[in-house]
Amino acid sequence: MRLVFAENEPHLKPNPRRDHMSGVPELAYSTLDRHGGRVLAPGQVVRTAGRSAPVGTIYRYDRLLVDESVINDEAALRRLEGAIRPSGMTIESQPASTLVPGQGSYRVPVVSAHGDHAGVDAWSLLQRLRTDTSEESLPVELLDKVRLEHLMICSKGGIGIGGGETPAGGPRAASLGRVPVDMVNPMPSRRRLDRRLRVAVLDTGVPNRHPAFDVSDRSEDEDTFVVVDHAFQVKLGEHSDSPAIPLDDPWEGPVHEPTLIGEVASHFGHGTFITGLLRQLSPDVQVYSLRVIHNDGLAYEHDVIGALHHLADQIEAARGGDAEAYAVDVVVLAMGYVDENPHDEPGGWIGDAVNRLAALGIPVVAAAGNQSSDRPFYPAAFAAHEPLANAAPIVSVGALNPNLEIAMFSNEGPWVSCYATGAGLVSTYPCEAEGSREPERRSKSSVRNRFRESYDFDDFSSGFAVWSGTSFAAPVAAAYLLNAIAESGVEEVQDSVKAAERAHAALARLKSR
After folding, report:
1. In total, how many domains does the chain have?
2. Does residue 189 share a domain with residue 136?
3. Burial of 255 (0-12, 13-18, 19+ CB in 10 A)
4. Which parts of the sequence belong to the Peptidase S8/S53 domain (predicted)?
5. Are residues 311 and 185 in the same domain?
């Protein structure tokens, strides 16, 4: 079995010697700018007197997340705006947005009160609010309801992680990254079932067509392997507020890096690869694909929170008798972030969203990250937090090499639940992907309509690729969990406690093998 569990239950262990920038991915300036991102480097930022220094993270510098209780309370909102005013910045509460009702947080733009956009910084604003001693200063309970919006990362950097740039040095070096291959084994057959276990994949989406799986929209109510949701994507697009292309469709392709070189975008096909792993390992399930990650591998915390609450809303509606609701049984997350809290105690709303699903009996399987760090990577590291009573497990997944050793790029620590194969995996990839790299040599062939040529490292017309990352270890682990759940039946469980018990029993069976 390509799944290895940690010796102890996931837990947090302080590491005061850890570098403050450990686990923070290195992103190009152009990538950060595309998403309004900024790196919080502890040695270079404003810090609050009397508080522990923050640790590194990546956040959106012109956005804050504000609790809905503040937005909906005119007196509290006016007080917040009054406290912000002396900073030279202001918040625009009118366009504040939330993806689904009741998700807890609103995303609020931060702008300059004097037209000086260079002076806008959400982190600096939060520090000013925390050190304010004037009559307009905010109480702690209100301050705790205003937080950064983090940029969430998937498969970015690290040995064995495919990016848009193939390493130099010939075929051996190129094999470290994302490489096209052909699949000679047929996909496993898919049985006809009255009901299927459903797994939600929040990622970069899937193409409309692929030889390995079929796709339909949720409104069509068809028994395809993948179900997408145009209505959800339209709503997500309506709430887009960055220079990046909005995620208003279940698929966008082909996508290249934003230069004239014509390289395939670094994370184009990421969700397709995850879907193919599930197709190989759990052919009888159905994948619910929600596109929340851009093709450069970045997602917005607020969007992910909204998508998780959307899933929870659908589960509750289905259990309440709504025949059109779409309830899933497992959730897979391949993205995450490191929190600036130096004590590994992140606040905010993403933990609430994950816990809401767990309380409904839905296990959440999340990638542990690819930064070769022991720093907790969220939401995966919620596996190490005190669980809710009668809740389904949260499973954090690191990556194994094919020889079952821990992959060099994988995060590792006491907060990781298990490790699954995540290096050198073969799975589906968009057939339309083709970059500007050409074979080193090409000559005429005596075979009609064919050429002789050396390997083309970015022609993915075969529809399959080799890739690596904890992003892919997570769906492998999820597939094992889904198969174990199916052993006790695939009937829809209406009771949250019984659903959680089913998930824990399946996990226990896996641990005993």
Report:
1. 2
2. no
3. buried
4. 197-484
5. yes
Residue from 334, 487, 447 nearest 397 by CA: 334
Q: Using CA atoms, how far apart are residues 354 and 364, in angstroms rounded to an integer?
A: 7
| Band of residue 246 on the pLDDT scale cut at 50, 70, 90 | very high
Indicate if 186 and 289 belong to the same structural domain: yes
User: Six-digit token pair at 166?
Assistant: 């193939």
Over the stretch 251-275, which tens digit does the pLDDT of each residue have? 998 888 888 888 999 999 999 999 9
Cα angle, residue 258 at apex, residues 158 and 300 outer, rounded to 5°: 65
**Measuring CA to CA, which residue among 486, 502, 501 is closest to residue 278?**
486
Claim to verify: residue 269 and residue 149 sit in the same structural domain: no
Task: Tell me if 19 is assigned to some domain.
Answer: no
For 456, residues 6+ apart whose C-beta sits below 8 A from its C-beta are 180, 437, 438, 439
Helices 230-238 + 301-319 axis angle, to 10: 140
Tell me: do 332 and 243 sit in the same domain.
yes
| Residue 213, CA atoms < 13 Å, CB-side half-sphere | 33
Considering the domain architecture, whether residues 206 and 264 belong to the same structural domain is answered as yes
Catalytic sites, residue numbers: 203, 270, 471
How far apart CA 422 and CA 404 sit, in angstroms, is: 10
* 42, amino acid identity: P
pTM higher than 0.85, yes or no? yes
What sections of 178-252 are H helices per DSSP? 230-238
Question: Looking at the structure, do residues 91 and 216 belong to the same domain, yes or no?
Answer: no
Distance of CA 286 to the CA centre of its chain: 19
Domain finish residue from 153, 185, 219: 153
What's 181's domain CATH number? 3.40.50.200
Domain assignment of residue 117, given as a range? 31-153
Say yes or no: 359 and 499 in one domain: yes
Question: And the tokens for 213?
Answer: 């799986």
| Per-residue pLDDT tens over the stretch 167-201 | 333 444 444 579 999 999 999 999 999 999 999 99
Residue 114 clears pLDDT 90, i.e. is over it: no
- H or E stretch covering 420: strand 418-421
Gap between the Cα atoms of 279 and 286, Å rounded? 9
